[in-house]
Amino acid sequence: MTPPHARKSTCPNCQRAFAQELKPGRPRNYCSDACRNQANHRKKVSGEETTAHDPSRHEALLAETIEALRQAVNDLTDAMREQRPSAELLKCRAQIARLSEDVEAVAVRRGRDRGESWDVMSDALALSRDRLRKKWTLEIFDRRMGRRPAPAQRLSPNEGITVFIPQQRPPDTHRDGTPENDAGPDPDGSPPTYPYPSSPTQLLASALSYLQRRSGYTLRHLAFDVGVHPSYVSRILNGERDPSWEVTAGLAVACSADAADLLPLWNAVHNVATPSPSTPKQAVNLYRAVLRGLHLAAAAPTPQAMCETSNYSLTTTDIVRALNGPRVPDWPTTQHLVLALRGRPADLYTVWQIASSSPDAEVTTISAGAFG
């Protein structure tokens, strides 16, 4: 139980909750000196080869990027056949060049994870070994992947991305075979078109902004609770500043929210590697925290609104089960959920793999009232 004169915080290294006394001075970021030292060491070696990256994440990113590149080439071909203005052809060409560079970045990091030498890969690109090493350090790679505008993006009038996911079940049934009564209007048969995924900074700012609006508190009130200036809170909510974890957690607590739901978003903003879950149950909890954070960033849309965003590729039952548990949905459903909430599915793929290995895991759930 948290002491009366203490504030509950979450350690960004081990993700454990801890209580710290409310007293003058800077609040602690970490639950212990050991966690702080581990986090500092991880930051120091973030650009070195010793930093571990999950190979499966690179496989998912590579597949996603190659699919986006294929679609961009198709867009260029269509633009040529339809005799569109040269400006559109050049726009397609720029998109292909960017995606080709993304493929190079992911392939290089994937190759290093697989033990391929710098010499072999640099020869394939007609570059020197040192130039390739400097071009795609882990820090540069993470920064480039963090600001990618979208997976599988298409040049279309509505400026969205279209995801082609095979049908996994009959259209009028739930995944467990029971009749589906909440699917809404029949979709037109076309794949859903989603808005571009937001950047990590945009997602965190949107989540905090939504919590502030939901709480009804003024910026001055929140700033006083957290111990910062109101103008700084305003810049955070506008996405102009990246807050520290203690400020982020303090704002969440002041808005009567669970700071743990914002931790994945905060980690993405600051390029802090979330410790890999060691058990399926931990993976399930992390999976739900990521979805809840994205749900907050999207201003907590109702299940019906998310169904409409997905062109009814999702049902309200899919959405409530994914957010409430206890089971983890299949990967196509997860992709639709993340895209509908303006996230990037590849960022959740590894966690989903571990979590889905234990579909009956019981986890902490959120109430239906969280949907508004």
Structure write-up:
By secondary structure, the protein is mainly α. It has helices at about 35-45, 55-80, 85-115, 120-125, 130-135, 140-145, 200-215, 220-225, 230-235, 245-255, 265-270, 280-295, 305-310, 315-325, 330-340, 350-355, and strands at about 5-10, 15-20, 160, 195. The protein has a two-stranded antiparallel sheet with strand order 1-2. Strands 3-4 form a two-stranded antiparallel sheet. The longest helix has 28 residues, at about 85-115. Residues about 45-55, about 150-190 and about 360-370 have low confidence and may be disordered.
Question: Helices, strands, pairings?
Answer:
Elements: E1 6-10, E2 17-21, H1 33-44, H2 55-81, H3 86-113, H4 118-124, H5 129-135, H6 138-146, E3 161-162, E4 193-194, H7 200-215, H8 219-226, H9 230-237, H10 245-254, H11 263-269, H12 280-297, H13 303-309, H14 316-324, H15 331-340, H16 349-355
Helix pairs in contact: 2-3, 3-6, 4-5, 7-11, 7-12, 8-9, 8-10, 12-16, 13-14
Summarize the model shown.
The protein has 372 residues and is mainly alpha-helical. It has helices at 33-44, 55-81, 86-113, 118-124, 129-135, 138-146, 200-215, 219-226, 230-237, 245-254, 263-269, 280-297, 303-309, 316-324, 331-340, 349-355, and strands spanning 6-10, 17-21, 161-162, 193-194. A hairpin with a 6-residue loop joins strand 1 and strand 2.
Helix content: 40-55%
Distance between the termini: 29 Å
Low-pLDDT sequence parts? 46-53, 149-189, 360-372
Major β-sheet profile: 2 strands, antiparallel
Indicate the structural class: mainly alpha
Order of helices and strands: EEHHHHHHEEHHHHHHHHHH
- CA-based gyration radius: 22 Å
**Order of strands across the widest beta sheet?**
1-2
Mean pLDDT: 75
How many DSSP helices? 16
* Approximate strand percentage: under 5%
What general form does the structure show? Answer: globular
Number of E strands = 4
